[in-house]
Design goal:
The protein is of the alpha/beta class and 218 residues long. 33% of the residues lie in helices and 23% in strands.
């Protein structure tokens, strides 16, 4: 049976008997520098630390936009897990997709204007991919949320860009910040758009723990 720390046990992760010859999970690592993901994962457990992956985040040629976030999340998690084999590592990546194009973080003001004009009055998809790595195991999943913007005037776009908020956000907006006034409706998990589908992640972590425990019993 995998043995977890007390904070993880309070979440419902298995602890069970204290027999010998078990793998001991010494902690949880978030392989992301996003302050938003750090805040969200704290709702699952206060017992984690952040180690930013140094892996090159390069997409293979021809990969479908919908598959990109899971691929990148896996790269991040695996790179950190290789150096921390006794810890559970979580990687995540969020993309905004419109008309089959991934809208990443804007390069400059003109790029932010382009993205916001493209999103104006339309529905787009936000996908966050997650990877959980540890003890030679790797589990990935993704969550999709559909977001619709109000039609945006040139003035609204200029005023929002002037806040500086778009420049470190995929798709050039932050729904949890001043960008909330651009959004008409969403269908799906709000926190997925922020950067982490925290409710689904909690359940996937619990399943990951159960799987480790079953392997130890075998």
């Amino acid at each position: 049976m995998a043995r977890f720390s007390e904070p993880m046990k309070r979440l419902g992760f298995s602890s069970a008997d204290q027999t010998e010859n078990r793998r001991a999970v010494t902690g949880m690592i978030l392989a992301s520098q996003s302050p938003r993901r750090k805040e969200l994962i704290a709702n699952i457990t206060p017992s984690f630390r952040v180690i930013v992956s140094q892996a090159e985040e390069k997409l293979p040629e021809g990969i479908a936009p919908e598959e990109a976030p899971v691929y990148l999340a896996g790269i991040k998690a695996e790179a950190v897990a290789a150096a921390h084999p006794d810890e559970v590592v979580i990687g995540a990546d969020t993309v905004v997709i419109l008309d089959g194009e991934i809208l990443g973080k804007p390069r400059d003001q003109a790029d932010a204007e382009r993205m916001l004009r493209a999103l104006s009055g339309r529905e787009h998809t936000v996908i966050t991919g997650c990877a959980i790595c540890g003890f030679g195991r790797r589990v990935t999943f993704s969550e999709q949320t559909r977001v619709t913007f109000y039609p945006l005037s040139d003035r609204e776009i200029a005023e929002y860009i002037a806040t500086g908020e778009p420049f470190d956000k995929a798709g050039a907006y932050g729904i949890q910040g001043k960008g909330c006034v651009l959004v008409k409706r969403i269908e799906g998990d709000f926190f997925n758009v922020v950067g982490l589908p925290v409710a689904k992640l909690k359940r996937e972590l619990e399943a990951f723990d159960t799987s480790l425990s079953s392997e130890d019993k075998a």
